[in-house]
Design brief:
Helix content is about 45%, strand content about 25%. It is built from 5 helices and 7 strands; from the N terminus they run αβααββββαββα. α2 runs antiparallel to α3.
């Protein structure tokens, strides 16, 4: 086990050896399930077409239409599988990290484009947690906004679990900073 810890890779780009990670968060799992539910609708379209249209149109079971229909179903399934993998990859690669020194936001926009933003906790000016809607209240997920004094005016943790706990953690870490590191709040 110690060999594993010794070979530990860093979790995010630019992570320092002395940084202690307090939180790694992604969108709430129910958000992922909503996207998978939409994907399942497209699977249902294939099943409906296969079970109800082919028996009603016997010509689709004859050559060459059966081969063409089989090819179309295969291509459709390939796109469905690619979409499912894409949903998972985008869910997994979008995350936020809160350490004792900074907040890092890794945003994977699509399969070929990602952005990493970070700011030091001393630049924190305001932290706000927001829960909206029935699902958000029932499953306790929402957005956390971190107002900074830097170029990036507002960091957003999008639909994360326990947003009020995330807000409290960030504020507690900010309060732990020595007064010499805290920037005066500009009003």
């Amino acid at each position: 086990m110690s060999k594993f810890l010794a070979k530990r890779k860093y979790l995010f780009p630019g992570q320092q050896a002395q940084e202690k990670i307090y939180l790694v968060t992604r969108r709430h799992w129910i958000v992922l399930m909503k996207e998978v539910a939409v994907w399942l609708l497209f699977v249902a379209i294939l099943l409906v077409a296969d079970n109800f249209l082919t028996p009603r149109f016997p010509i689709l079971n004859e050559s060459p239409y059966a081969q063409i229909l089989g090819l179309l179903k295969t291509v459709y399934m390939m796109f469905l599988l690619a979409a499912l993998f894409s949903i998972w990859i985008l869910y997994y690669l979008n995350y936020q990290v809160v350490t004792n020194e900074r907040i890092v936001d890794v945003t994977q926009t699509n399969l070929l484009h990602h952005t990493t933003s970070e700011f030091h906790l001393s630049r924190t000016q305001d932290v706000t947690a927001e829960i909206r809607g029935i699902f958000g209240n029932f499953f306790n997920y929402g957005n956390v906004y971190v107002q900074t004094a830097g170029e990036t005016v507002r960091f957003e943790f999008d639909r994360v679990p326990n947003p009020h706990q995330v807000e409290k953690l960030i504020l507690d870490l900010y309060e732990r900073l020595p007064d010499s590191q805290k920037r005066p709040k500009e009003w």
